[in-house]
Amino acid sequence: MPELKRLDAGHAPAVLAFELANRAYFAASVSDRGDDFFDQFTDRYNASLAEQESGVCAFYVLVAEDGSVLGRFNLYDLEDGTARLGYRVAERVAGRGVATATVRELCRTAAAMYGLRTLRAATSHDNAASQNVLAKAGFVAVGPATPADLGGKSGTWYQRDLQ
C-alpha cells in the first residue's frame, strides 16, 4: 500500500527518478520544469528541504512499497491558516483515484498537523484530470487563475475549507 511521507533527504534519488520518468507526461498538462530543474536538482532539492524546515512549506511524497515515488503533494505558503496545494502523480497510476485519495489525506494532515483551515489550488482549463481530482476531494471553484499563477496558462482557482 502506498504511503504518504514527509519529504526528507533520503527521498532525493527516488524523486529525481520520478520527475525524469514522468517529464513528458507532466509537460502535456503543466508547464515543463525545464532543463535547469534537472541540472540543478540537488541544490533545488536541498533548498526545498530548508524551506520546509523553516515552516513556510510542507512537501510530501507518495511512496510505493518498492520505494519508488508515485506522486508529489505539496503545501506552499503556509500562513494565517491557509496554504496552496500542488500535486502530480506518475503516469503509471494516473486515472486510478490515487491523486484524489492522497489529496484527501493531505487535507486531513494539513488541518491536524499544521492547523490549516483553507487550502487553495489552481489548475489550467485544459487539465481536466486535475479539475476532477479537486472536485472529488471537496474543492470548489472560486475564481480565475492567471497565466502568472499557472506557468503561462489560464485556469481556475479552487478552494476547500478544512474545518
Give an account of the 3D structure.
- By secondary structure, this protein is an alpha+beta fold.
- It is built from 6 helices and 7 strands, in the order βααααβββαβαββ.
- It has helices at 12-21, 23-27, 35-39, 41-54, 98-114, 128-136; strands at 3-6, 58-63, 69-79, 82-89, 118-124, 140-145, 155-161.
- It has a 7-stranded mixed β-sheet, with helices on both faces.
- The longest helix has 17 residues, at 98-114.
- The mean pLDDT is 94.
Write the layout of secondary structure elements.
Blueprint: E1 3-6, H1 12-21, H2 23-27, H3 35-39, H4 41-54, E2 58-63, E3 69-79, E4 82-89, H5 98-114, E5 118-124, H6 128-136, E6 140-145, E7 155-161
Parallel strand pairs: 4-5
Antiparallel strand pairs: 1-2, 2-3, 3-4, 5-7, 6-7
Which regions contain 5 or more consecutive residues with pLDDT less than 50? none
- Provide the helix percentage: 25-40%
Mean of residue pLDDT values: 94
Order of helices and strands: EHHHHEEEHEHEE
The helix-and-strand class reads: alpha+beta
Strand line-up in the sheet with most strands: 1-2-3-4-5-7-6
Tally of strands: 7
Beta-strand percentage range: 25-35%
Largest sheet: 7 strands, mixed
Cα-based radius of gyration, to the nearest Å: 15 Å
Molecular shape: globular
Number of separate helices: 6
End-to-end Cα distance, whole Å, is 28 Å
Please give the oligomerization state of what you see. Answer: single chain
